[in-house]
Amino acid sequence: MIATSFPARLHVLLARDVPFGVVIRRGPSKVTALVGWNRRGNTFTLGQWLRGRIYERRSDLSPDGQHLIYFAMNGRWSSATRGSWTAISRAPYLKALTLYAKGDGWNGGGLFRDARRYWLNDGIYAHALQRDAAPLRRVDDTHRPHGECPTVYYERLARDGWTPAEQRRDGHGGYVLPLDKPLSARWILRKYTHATVHAGPGRGCYFDTHELVDRRSGAVLARDDWEWADVVDGRLVWACGGRLLAAAIARDGDPGAERLLHDFNPMRFEAVRAPY
Prior knowledge:
The protein is mostly beta strands. The protein has one helix spanning 149-159; strands at residues 9-14, 20-26, 32-38, 43-50, 53-54, 60-61, 67-73, 84-90, 96-101, 110-114, 117-120, 128-132, 137-138, 163-164, 168-169, 175-182, 187-195, 206-214, 220-223, 228-232, 235-240, 243-248, 259-263.
């Protein structure tokens, strides 16, 4: 029997220079929330909700944790945003300081080059600038390709310390790209980024699975239910079943016992005004 409901789906954006992150929580499928994560105290603060979709793989958090760039869609095609848009906001809120109307699902989103500069995933499927109030400067990398989720996501992963292997066919008409990040002298965290139209229930065409790989023995611990995972402040942190969990990393031993950081499943839509 196929499940008709699923736990909240989670993806995390990490600030590189400060202990802060933004959790993108989706569920039901057309409702999304942003939640700020103070990584020093493991406290979580609601930003804002959107009745629509945020494309987490085309989004990014500035290194200082101050700004968020995201691509969103709500299908209101006659609105000022044309139904889809790229925005820059103050993390973890959605209210746009800089706003680019889009009008379709092609390209969109972007990446931060540093705390004061960003790249827009634009290309031939152009945006229309509606507002430009963020204290940031857009940079155009004309040599850099524009595209859908993998184009932005793969670059973000490589920037953040993931080492990619060779992309390969997955046997179901799609592709999978393995990427590694060291956990310790003994263990490797391996991420598989999938792109396929045969994802199965509860998954979109882009999704991730993970493994823990023992360098010594070659043993592989499959973690197919981890939809996001990374090495965060010296810990292994992952998202599974609508919850964010963590484990300590010993230099030579196995990862420690899991610890629940937060359960995002009980959250329900509420209207929140940005404080700016």
